[in-house]
Amino acid sequence: MGFLDIDNTTKSYGAVEVLHKVDISVEEGEFLVLVGPSGCGKSTLLNMIAGLEEISSGEIRIKDAVMNGVHPSKRNIAMVFQSYALYPNMTVGQNITFGLEMHGVPKPEREKAMKDVAGLLQIEQLMDRKPGALSGGQRQRVAMGRALVRNPDVFLFDEPLSNLDAKLRVDMRTEIKKLHQKLGTTIVYVTHDQIEAMTLSTRIAVMYGGYVQQLGTPQEIYDSPANVFVATFMGSPAMNVVPAKVAIEDGKPAAVVALHDGRSTTLPFSQDNLAAWNGRDIMLGIRPETITDEDAADRKSSNIAPMTNRITVTEPAGSDTFVTMTLGGKDVIARMRSDADVRPGADFKFLVNMEKAVAFDPDTEMRIVP
Amino acid sequence: MSVATQDTAIRTGRVTRTLIYLVLLLFALFYMLPLYVMLVNSVKPLDEITGGGMMNLPKVFTLEPWAKAWSSAQIGVEPTGLKPYFWNSIKMVVPAVIISTVLGALNGYVLTKWRFRGDTILFGLMLFACFIPFQIVLIPMARMLGLMGVAGTTWGLVLVHVVYGIGFTTLYFRNYYAVFPTELIRAAQIDGAGFFQIFWRILLPSSGPIAVVSIIWQFTNIWNDFLFGASFAGADSQPMTVALNNLVQSSTGVKEYNVHFAGAILAALPTLLVYIVAGRYFVRGLMAGSVKG
Fold first, then answer.
1. N or C: which end of chain B has fewer CB within 10 A?
2. Phi/psi at B45 (nearest 5 deg)?
3. Range list of H helices, A122-208
4. Architecture of the A4-233 domain
5. List of chain B residues whose C-beta atoms are within 8 Å of the C-beta of residue A79
6. What's the fold here for domain A240-360?
7. What is chain A's mean pLDDT, rounded?
């Protein structure tokens, strides 16, 4: 029994089920991120926790109290919206204390709570301004202040950073993380940005098509994706997934992959149970950063496989250089250090860290679990 | 070369602009002509008008026709002037405008933020009210007013105008609130505000521009209405427009054109005033920067 339980919860509009049996249990102080492409049901789930959408079946419990049918204001939650949703006719101070006023908190207490929050977020000097006179980052802070002042059990964030420009977004991300570490609050955070999900969360629920595809720590999600969708959605650039065939080489299973010119190369697996797939097709997943040049290979890895292939495109990005090649008939991206000696059109000896490689069943697209 | 072309460009620009302004000026003059005639003739003694020369400026300036139209002209059988009818109109227009605007705002709020099954059909039906000609509803309306016991009273007229205006005000507020961010309503809900608290505290304070539009529209229409006033008003609730008609129709002997002109201007003054006072708030973007920047 967790702090916030989402128990076999579904959402249907008429006969259409948009959210299928979601089952997540959040512990106190956890930072859960719901991530997925638009239309995956993540915002719907958040709104159901908030009480802004009805629960079609199943239960949502906060501190063991069933929330089905409970009014949003009585759930002791606070929400930060994508558009900030600051009341345009009220000052910042009034915005922050409106919720307290509606809950009948006497004025002196409201003032005190407002001062505390303003101090915490460093927005004291903005209290008498209207939201229209604030910058994006300031509005974001005020919106968070409005949530914090209520001292709720659960904070809900609905894509709070997506309206900010890139630089500010990174700053606010750090700020939210700091705030979470400082206050130890329970947070459910919706985003479509996988980097936000990775950096902020203690756990991630990757959603797609109304299903939770995988629930786990950022590391689990990144290193052991449950299926091809999770593998390609998380990580930037995305994980390379190429068709391959399993063969036994020196008694060990290995992936046979076509190179750019139709010849093939053999990459030995670290995963012994793939021997059972001998002679069958699989999908091989390789993260871009596990394909390197000779100098940058991970020295701790027990399984580095060489592979010579032709470079099609190089994209220097300052800190890294992205190298594109053709592997298994697909474009594969390698993330190399910026001073790697790579030239388009040249043959190059790559090293692949096969310890990190994953294999997927091509029919179900599920990962073949070791 | 380029300098020369630039010169020509400016010259043609000037010529066209002068032409445009000239034409506009002509139109404006033409459009203002009736007002001029009314104003000029309302401050002349009657014999100056009957002597011809409607367009001439007054030789003798007098405010006597205005005073007469306001307080002593013959309206029907009573020599009361327009004064009592002016107050009748005010007593009818003010509540009718306020009630229809508030109801329209509430309707718009419900139709956009508390949507329910069939709300678009309901809104469509309300819109229908905007297209029904006045004449069609006269007889059923008279029957309804009789049944409700408000026939011939100011409140009866208020009711008629509210019912007729609600279609328009609902249309205005619905369209305005349709683009009002729903997230604000949701935030207020989470903050614990109820249905009417959200309406009074969040929505209405942000509705300035559309409220002004609604008030101007309703005020003008209700003040200028003649048909309902003539059909449903009793002797002591007749509005200004009906009285003006009676003033012009019921002259004994000579037609006092100067008094008629003054009366007509008096009848038109309040709507003019509403435009001048409220027009400033027309374009205020109260919502600027409320959501994202």
1. N
2. -70, 155
3. 136-148, 166-183, 194-200
4. 3-Layer(aba) Sandwich (3.40)
5. 186-187, 190
6. OB fold (Dihydrolipoamide Acetyltransferase, E2P) (2.40.50)
7. 90
Are B186 and A131 in contact (CB < 8 Å)? no
The burial of B188, by beta-carbon neighbours within 10 Å (0-12 exposed, 13-18 middle, 19 or more buried), is given as buried
User: Chain B residues with CB inside 8 Å of A71's CB?
Assistant: 189
Q: What band does B10 get if pLDDT is binned at 50, 70 and 90?
A: low
CB-based contact A306:A350 (threshold 8 Å): yes
Listed residue (A158, A147, A160, A153) closest to A184, CA to CA = A153
Closest CA to A271 of A357, A352, A353: A357
Q: How far apart are CA A54 and CA A68, in angstroms?
A: 8
Residue of A nearest to B183 (CA): A85
* 3-state DSSP percent of chain B in helix, strand and coil, to 5: 75, 0, 25
Task: Mark yes or no for CB contact B183/A83 under 8 Å.
Answer: yes
The hierarchical CATH code for the domain B83-281 is: 1.10.3720.10
> Domain ranges in chain B?
1-34, 83-281
pLDDT score recorded for residue B11: 63
> Which part of chain A has CATH 2.40.50.140?
240-360
For chain A, give every residue range classified as CATH 3.40.50.300.
4-233
CB A9 within 8 A of CB A19: yes
**Closest residue in chain A to residue B114, using alpha carbons only:** A52
pTM score, whole prediction:
0.77
pLDDT at B288: 35
Helices (H), chain A: 42-50, 92-102, 107-121, 136-148, 166-183, 194-200, 218-223, 228-233
* Nearest partner of A337 among A306, A295, A286, judged by Cα: A295
Are the Cβ atoms of A81 and B183 closer than 8 angstroms? yes
Name which of B184, B190, B199 to mutate to probe chain A: the one with the most chain A Cβ atoms within 10 A of its Cβ: B190
B289 pLDDT exceeds 50?
no
Q: Out of A71, A77, A102, whose CB is closest to B197?
A: A102
Which residue is closest to B207 within chain A, CA to CA? Answer: A89
Q: Do B290 and A82 touch (CB under 8 A)?
A: no
B→A contacts (Cβ < 8 Å), by residue, are 181, 183-184, 186-193, 197, 201-202, 205-206, 286-293
Nearest to B290 among A77, A86, A98 (CB): A86
CA distance B109 to B103: 10
Q: What are A79-132's pLDDT values in tens digits?
A: 998 888 889 888 898 899 898 888 888 888 888 888 888 888 888 888 888 888
In chain B, the residue whose alpha carbon lies closest to the alpha carbon of A140 is: B292
pLDDT digits (tens, 9 = 90+) for B84-127: 888 888 989 999 999 999 999 999 999 888 888 888 888 888 88
User: Coil, helix or strand for A282?
Assistant: strand
